[in-house]
Amino acid sequence: MTDFPGAPTTPSTGRLRVLAAMSGGVDSAVAAARAVEAGHEVTGVHLALASNPQSFRTGARGCCTLEDSRDARRAADVIGIPFYVWDLAERFREDVIDDFVAEYAAGRTPNPCLRCNEKIKFAALLDKAVALGFDAVCTGHYARIVDHPDGTRELHRAADAAKDQSYVLGVLDADQLAHSLFPLGDTTKDVIRAEAERRGLAVAKKPDSHDICFIADGDTQGFLAERLGTAPGDILDADGTKLGEHDGAYGFTIGQRKGLRLGRPAADGKPRYVLDISPVDNTVTVGPVEGLDVHALTAIRPRWCGTPAAGEGRYTAQLRAHGEEVPVTAVLGEDELHVRLDTPARGIAPGQAVVLYDGTRVVGSATIASTERAVGV
Fold first, then answer.
1. Within this chain, do residues 333 and 348 fall inside the same structural domain, yes or no?
2. Where is this site: Interaction with tRNA (predicted)?
3. CB–CB of 110/104 below 8 Å?
4. Binding site members
5. Is the same domain home to 138 and 29?
6. From the candidates 63, 138, 213, 305, which is the catalytic residue?
7. What pLDDT score does 3 carry?
């Protein structure tokens, strides 16, 4: 069978040594099976990322349980490939969980999935894979890789827009992209489940995991409170009037409406939203929804999917994992980006990622450091 789209440049034999990251879900299992069917020498690996993993998942919440590890092993057995479990729990704690907590403590809103791709799956895992002689790491992400005759590669959106995961892969640099395989990028989720069933994979109907994998119960505020403790402060309106109190500014996110526990309603009777979180004086500022309108932003630590971009240009930008693209003008520098949106977007917070696209091609990603709003806070 011919190779699937997006395989790295192959040696003369056309056969690659591929390390397939197997989470225990249907996507990574089918991705591994497709890599085998494409003629590659595939080894499956499950990443043990939890120091004290639970035995079972609760529905679709969380991942990295012992059940997930066993599901991955059974899938590897059906596919007919060697299988190992690699313990990366300490690295995951340092690079993802500790970073997550520190970002919230600093009043920012991080994306742990993006950080995991950057630091774990395509750094720690890929580095180890290359050191052991593997040519590529294969995952079940929904994204496409386009190869050019000169050997360069581009990351593009998946064919299935509803499942596209290029946003959380925007942190990959050219070298990481050169060693990546995404066999599912041209396929829809329904087709993947049907294929898994035909292949006899027991995970064919297993629910997708969602939310934050290391907060299995979905209680992010409780998770942060356990690690950061109680830190009472004031909830203010835009003119500085005290409206209520909170137990920790880390428990709020920009754009939040529910759970504000305000002492009195707004004079106009309209809902109020979190507009600003200040760790310096431990205050949370709320106001009308119009105060969320962001028309420009500055982002730092850019990472380019291929040749580094520079100068001013027109792009589209995705500002949240499941957000829509918006047209922007961006000035790209070595250390930061300045992005101006054609139309304002709401709920954009420091700590989130802005990912730039040229058509379906991912140009790069950067971390939002500050925003400019039409209505001052």
1. yes
2. 141, 352
3. yes
4. 21-28, 47, 140
5. yes
6. 213
7. 45
Residue 2: the pLDDT is 35
Degrees to nearest 5, angle at CA 194 with 189 and 200: 125
Among all chains, which residue has been given the structure tokens 């205050």? 283
**Residue 273 belongs to a domain:** yes
| pLDDT reported for residue 150 | 87
Verify whether residue 116 is a known catalytic residue: yes
Residues 274, 285: Cα–Cα separation, whole Å: 6
The whole-number pLDDT of residue 310 equals 86
- The reported pLDDT for the residue numbered 50 is 79
Q: Which of 291, 306, 336 is the last residue of a domain?
A: 291
Tokens of 109: 């809103």
DSSP element (H, E) containing 131: helix 125-131
- Are 272 and 341 members of one domain? no
Report the number of distinct structural domains present in the chain.
3
Residue 1 lies in a domain: no
- 161 token code pair: 């827009």
∠ CA 306-307-308, nearest 5°, is 110
In a shared domain, residues 317 and 363: yes
Q: Are 295 and 352 in contact (CB under 8 A)?
A: no
Looking at this protein, which amino acid is placed at residue 217? D
CA 191 from chain centre, in angstroms, equals: 23
Q: Which structure tokens are listed for 227?
A: 């690690």
For every residue of 318-375, DSSP letters joined together read: E-STTPPEEEEEEEE-SSEEEEEEEEEESS--TTSEEEEEETTEEEEEEEEEEEEESS
- Per residue, the 3-state secondary structure of 19-35, as one string, reads EEECCCCHHHHHHHHHH
Q: Take residue 277 and report the two structure tokens written for it.
A: 């979180």
Q: Do 200 and 242 belong to one domain?
A: no
Annotated binding site for ATP, which residues?
21-28, 47, 140
Q: Is residue 56 part of a domain?
A: yes
**Residue range(s) defining the domain that contains residue 182:** 17-205
Clarify whether residues 297 and 287 are in a common domain.
Answer: no
Contact 208, 192 (CB under 8 A): no
Q: What is the pTM of this model?
A: 0.89
Q: Is residue 271 part of a domain?
A: yes
Q: Specify whether 269 is located in the same domain as 149.
A: no
